Amino acid sequence: MSKAVPVPPATKWLEPQVLTGAQASAHAMRQAGVEVFPVYPITPQTPIIETFSGFVADGKTDAVLLQVESEHSAMSAAVASALGGARTMTATASQGLAFMVEVIHQAAGMRAPIVMVVGNRALAAPISIHCDYSDSMLARDSGVVQIYSEDAQEAYNLTVMAPRIAEHPDVLLPVMVCMDGFTITHSAEVVSLLPDADVADFVGPYELANAMLTAGQATTRGVFTMPDHFFTLHNRMTAATETAATVYDEVARDFERRFGSYLGPVEAYRMEDAERAIVMMGAASGTVKEVIDEMRDAGERVGLVVVRLFRPFPRAALIQAIGQTPHVAVLDRASSPGTYPPLFVDAFATLLGAGDIRCYLYGIGGYDLKPQTVRSVYEELKGPRHEYIRYLGPSEED
Amino acid sequence: MASLKTLARNEEEQPRFRSGHSMCAGCGMGAAARTVLNSIPGPVVVVGTSGCFEVTATRFPFTAWGVPWIHVAFENAAALASGLEASYLALKHRGRIPDEPVTFVVFAGDGGTYDIGLQSLSGALERGHHFLYVCLDNEAYMNTGVQRSGATPFAANTQTSPVGSRGRGKQEQRKDITGIVVAHRVPYVGQCSTSHLHDLSSKVERAVAVDGPSFLNVLTSCPTGWGHTTGDSVRVARLAVETRFWPLYEVVEGHWRLTHEPAHPAPLQEWLELQKRFSHLHGSRNVDLVKEFQRQIDEEWQELKRRTAADAAWFAERAGVTA
User: Fold this and answer.
1) How many CA atoms lie within 13 A of A333 on its CB side?
2) pLDDT (average), residues B145-162
3) Looking at chain A, which residue has its C-alpha nearest residue B122?
4) ipTM of the modeled complex
């Protein structure tokens, strides 16, 4: 029996540089071989398309930058372009994402593999330019794959992974790579990029079967159905969204094999023997990790589960990560007025109400999640359960 | 101008829009679409909107389309054409498709053009994509059961501008969509009717020959929405032209000319009498409405004549050069 010879990493990451999440994701799109990029500016996404416009002006990409007159048209053009046969990506945020939502549903239903980079920002009213996830939650039930980044490096890695997931023949759905507006899009961090050739090799060419412009035969796209066929076709799309969980992990494992970094569907942070855990998504999990490290040093058995893949919801991975942890606080950054917020609903249903699972809302409209607030959540988990939703925000008196 | 024989031969060689759809008897859409498509040389890709054309031609698992066709929503046809053209340019640049011209054709209704699709159309015209946008204008939201649109003519009875004890039909003058398109300085714009298919065919040939966007507004008779007999479909469309309600003209690089001038304009009443949507104007009822309707048409005609007169020399010079 021969022993498997470990394959040496073929790729060397480039020297770290200081980049914002917006810049890093623009690099990822360029390297992943975007061919058509229909866009419309909106804060805090704008630096993504500005960076990319610079690549076009400097001849660093030969992608067609299609500067349309609205996000609705950006997403519409993206569907036509992707189904036409060219690798297509777009980027948006907030109200712009809201304006796209009609077409996002159509893109999923028509099985258009589009990479969408999102700089998360609260939905008005009142107007806020700062982060929460109310924008991407609008597309939660559309069938698209949604992944949330913790920092600029993750935004880069996930954007490199995204086309492989979107374009997999068993998926063929839009993939949204979400990053917190400003906190990730605009904050300069140390980021390492991969060499262009390695990303190109990892992603591969865009090969859509029966694309409108390359198939050599007429295809009819965006048809009319009656109830005898709608449900069937809708279920096929739903099955593809479920399949994306397996494909996500395959792609993440291949990324790890080639580049040495694994970004799984969930990340369990110091969960080994945790008695109290937080479940959350996005950039604020970095703050929670800092608090955990301090509390662990003081002997407190606290941990964190970051949900990175939100759609399809990583049920098995969450169950495994939580394990026997008796006290769990789910921190949502989008509300669903009148009921429990979305991450809590999914986590609670997945964990089947086992043990003590509590619902918190934080960071709405960019309100900071401070370390002492995180500490207070872990402290509260020692005590009796609160009713319904606890708000980690300013009081009415503030 | 393609002869009828040429159009028929083209259709025989490649049926681009086939029978088996479920359009109403007497609907003008099928004849208009076939005339447009059979007049275009080379490969064609078609974009549609939500509406009658979509539901009658693409009911899953069937399709009447013999060429690639895509539809996504009601208001975004011009954006889809923009995306397809970008896709085409990207693929051609990489040598992944043959280096041959492809004509992108949009078919949209008046709702998808005058109203909900206006932003998308305006953006695509301004960006200068190479595509032909055909508005099959039947003057109301017919697929949803005849509601008024920005194209609905004055006084017309629709489900949302009903005639009643107080209601007198639509009280607003229609929008000049062709003029709006011309204001985008696109190289070719034309107004056509399903009664004049040779005129339509020759305008399509000129439209697809330009480098940039082109636009045709085709009056498309709708027996269901207009309330005429199916056998009168062509007659109603022809009378719309002959009464000057729907003049046939083209605008070449901003220069206007009539492509057909009624020698003896028919009285408006003759056209109104054929259509139930104007039954409250039949006989000598509501003469004030007829008078106002006539005033609007005269005003629109005079404006058109002013434009064509001013541009006559430009066309004459051009004819001299090409002769």
Assistant:
1) 30
2) 98
3) A69
4) 0.96
